[in-house]
Amino acid sequence: MVAPLSDTVSVQEIGNELDVREIGLRQAKIQDPARLTALHATGLLDSEVEEVFDRLTRIAVRLLGVPAAFISLVDADRDFYKSACGFGEPLAGERQIAGPTFCHYTVQRTTPLVIPDTAGDPEYRNVPTVKTLGVAAYVGVPLTVDGQTIGAFCAIDTHPRKWTGDEVDTLVELAASAQREVELRAAVSKAQTALSELESSRRELEERTEQAETANKAKSGFLSMMSHELRTPLNAITGYADILTMGVKGPVNEGQLDYLERILKASRHLQGLIGDVLEFARIDARSVNYSVDTVIIDDVIHDAVELVSPLMAEREITFTRENGESPERDVGYRAYADADRVRQILINLLANAIKFSPKGGRVWATRHLRKDFVGIGIGDRGRGIPPDRLHSVFEPFVQIDRESTAAKFQGVGLGLAICRELALGMRGDLVVESTEGVGSTFTLWLPTR
Question: What's the whole-model pTM score?
């Protein structure tokens, strides 16, 4: 009869003959973090009994003619038996035993551990299972996953026994089959972990996206509400100032007229800023509609220049039109876009070019054809943009070199951001080339079909 399984055996109960230093070294290897990580990644610890593993241990018992065979997974302080053939209770029910065991020695090897007579071997005779399980002979084959030995396929006899080469080879073959099953479980466990992490990331991304959309709607709503709230009293200020300027409420002297003109100028500037905020809020909320049709480029350039002509006259700016890179001088430049939005972009680009050009300078427009796009370039000989700021000119609420810009030319930094978003909304783009101290050219690219 095989002796019953005892309770946990402490180092003190092993006996003084075991070398304490050897125990310490062995335990350090058993508890190696990399080995334990590989073991736990298999997902087999404390798992249910599986016929595929039990079949292998039954075959081992039959072919080797031994009373018991095990597939053991060695954790930090115990052996867990994925399969145990040949022992009854309590091992069959508990399916685990506290170390140290012969499997603890096996996992420290790359070759089979073969012990013909455990009681007669001074290195192994004090292993607790010699007495508790009656292990008189042992042979164990290491099971390896990801380069780490996680357990053993072992066979025992209750009598001393000289293991033959064929018997050891048979156990090695059976262990190879067990190892393939363990590797399969490890791969499945990793895949399930990866899927779980992916699902968790997906849910987190959805939550963050929802939060961002909510915040974005709140921001757009706030900007729109505030702009409307500001525009109402501003319209009243502008209206009453116009009434006073016209003398409806009585004569206005020269000094009062000067003040009224300043009020009107400031209110119009503020109206422009509020208009930019409202426009940006609409773009940000994706609520801009485009009326796309064939646009004659020369016509929208002409319209835009007419609208900024008072600003050009004020700063004595000369405007010229050039053909640009097109080899054909009389080609009809057309785009498939929203004429009002194109005009809006050009007005903004022209106004910027005029504002940042020296008084008496020159601003020009060029036209380009490249494949399925037509380009409208607005250039100036202004102060240009520093290289380290060039990438940020289209970002919202950014105004390059604000501190050196005259107050009357300062905005909220939305003009170029709005222009580029409008260009993208028409399947085009807005790009810039600039050299600090030389000037800048902004080019609006639009599809021709």
Answer: 0.48
